[in-house]
Every structure is written in C-alpha cells, then in structure tokens.
Design brief:
Elements (H helix, E strand, L loop, with lengths): L14 H53 L6 H4 L1
C-alpha cells in the first residue's frame, strides 16, 4: 500500500510546484514581450500624435482663412 506522502506521479512529488514555476516563467515571458512591444510602439505613437497635431493646426488655419475677408488681388486693382 502506498503512503499518503508518496507522489502519485513519477514526474514530480509536488505538481503544484511545477505548475507555479511554469506560471511564473510564462508571466515573465509575457512581461518581457509587453515591454518590447511598448518600446517598439513608442516611435509610431510619436508620429501619430505629431500627425494629429498637424491635421488640427491645418484645419484651424483653413478655418481662419475662410473667416477672413477677401483681400484685393494686385491684378484686379489695375
């Protein structure tokens, strides 16, 4: 008869230790991948925000140009 402390599996006497270790390893790998993705995404985020600012400023300039009274052309004054 087997004792209650004897492992039921020949792989590990404490299967929870293997599971916890694997979970920790998976977590560390995912954290490293997340950090790498964040570093890779930073330049594209900067470009995106700069383009958005440029679009906003361009739209404001066009709106002000439409609101301004027309200026006389030099060719029509003659």
């Amino acid at each position: 008869m087997r004792s209650p402390l004897q492992p039921s599996s020949p792989v590990s006497p404490w299967p929870w230790a293997v599971t916890s270790g694997q979970t920790l390893l998976d977590f560390q790998q995912q954290a490293a991948q997340g950090q790498l993705a964040q570093k890779a995404g930073q330049p594209s985020n900067i470009v995106y925000h700069n383009l958005q600012a440029e679009r906003r400023l361009g739209a404001e300039a066009l709106a002000h140009a439409r609101e301004a009274p027309p200026t006389p052309c030099a060719s029509s004054a003659s």
